[in-house]
Amino acid sequence: MLSIVLPVVALGGTGLCMGLFLAYASKKFEVKVDPKVEEVLNALPGVNCGACGYPGCSGYAEAIALNGAPITACAPGGPAVAGKISEIMGMTVDMSGPKMVARVLCQGDNTRTSKIYDFDGELPTCASMMLYAGGDKSCRYGCLGFGDCVKACPANAIVINDKGIASIDEDKCISCKKCVVTCPKNIIQMAPIDKQVTVLCSSKEKGASARKACTIPCIGCGICAKICPVGAIEVKDNLAKIDFDKCIQCGLCATKCPTKAINNNVKEIKKAEIIEEKCIGCTACARVCPMKCIEGAVKEKHKVDESKCIGCQLCYDKCKFGAIKINVEPKI
């Protein structure tokens, strides 16, 4: 009987001693965490995407609470999380800017480009395909469509569509930039979500070569830059680029683009309307209108030809008498 009882007692006693030792050690060597670190960590979304530049949410929480790191670096959390952290830290923060989202600057899908070779290897990735002549597409600047960005996205905001190129759901995008870093072609860029007129092309080939590689390329013709009423477009290395800080989203560039490389995804239509009782016929609005859609002689009531108006609002900004209003309607 003792041969059974004694080992059990010895084992139990050993366990008790070890438990007491561990309890003592946990108190003796406890690393105290600043309560604010825990509060900030609880306010963060827990995505651990690393977009803030720190090793996960816990690293960012420590940097904020202990080292005074900027509280606006959490892209997935956005203004809501920054607001919570500002309350915890007793700070004020300005998050009035628009949300930044990832956008694929390519429309060269399988119907618009061709394959220059067939790849027989297993499980191809965009990164691995770059080792084979820069990819299998006729356009060497285009999306390869093997989904490296899809795998990198922590928000499941990216899919490879049925035509073979990456497509991003901007409402789901958490602005972590992981896809931007992952893309070996560097054709995913960040853009303000409220700016929906975009050059969806990354080709730097000259016009003729670009057309041979894709049916919807930017050919660097410069028409968009010439007609932009606010000078928001520049053509460099045969590729048009829109300055989102200047762009007023009138969509004129998209309308005039001969290859349809500029996409206008604006959800609203704006039209200027002149308030007759306030108009003094100064012609200032007519002189500034890029579409010449405002009619009327000096000292006469002016009228807007809505069929020509692009809603650029230049007339609205120019009028000193409040005689112009901008009507906004949903785009059908």
Automatic annotation (TrEMBL):
* Superkingdom as given in the UniProt entry: Bacteria
Region entry Hydrophobic, spans: 1-26
Q: Which portions of this protein are annotated as coiled-coil regions?
A: none
Q: Which sites bind [4Fe-4S] cluster 2?
A: 139, 143, 149, 183
Q: Which residues form the 4Fe-4S domain?
A: 32-91
Q: Any idea where this protein resides?
A: Cell membrane
GO annotation, biological process: electron transport chain
Which keywords label this protein? Answer: 4Fe-4S, Cell membrane, Electron transport, Iron, Iron-sulfur, Membrane, Metal-binding, Repeat, Translocase, Transport
Q: Which GO terms describe its cellular component?
A: plasma membrane
Pfam families associated with the record: Fer4, Fer4_21, Fer4_7, FeS
What EC number(s) has UniProt assigned to this enzyme? 7.-.-.-
What molecular function terms (GO) are annotated for this protein? 4 iron, 4 sulfur cluster binding; electron transfer activity; metal ion binding
* Top-level EC class as recorded in UniProt: translocase
Cofactor binding annotation = Binds 3 [4Fe-4S] clusters.
Summarizing the function annotation, the protein's role is: Part of a membrane-bound complex that couples electron transfer with translocation of ions across the membrane.
Can you state the subunit structure given in the record? The complex is composed of six subunits: RnfA, RnfB, RnfC, RnfD, RnfE and RnfG.
Could you tell me which PANTHER family the record lists for this protein?
A: ION-TRANSLOCATING OXIDOREDUCTASE COMPLEX SUBUNIT B
> What protein name applies here?
Ion-translocating oxidoreductase complex subunit B
Organism of derivation = Cetobacterium ceti
Lineage of the native species? Bacteria, Fusobacteriati, Fusobacteriota, Fusobacteriia, Fusobacteriales
Gene coding for it: rnfB
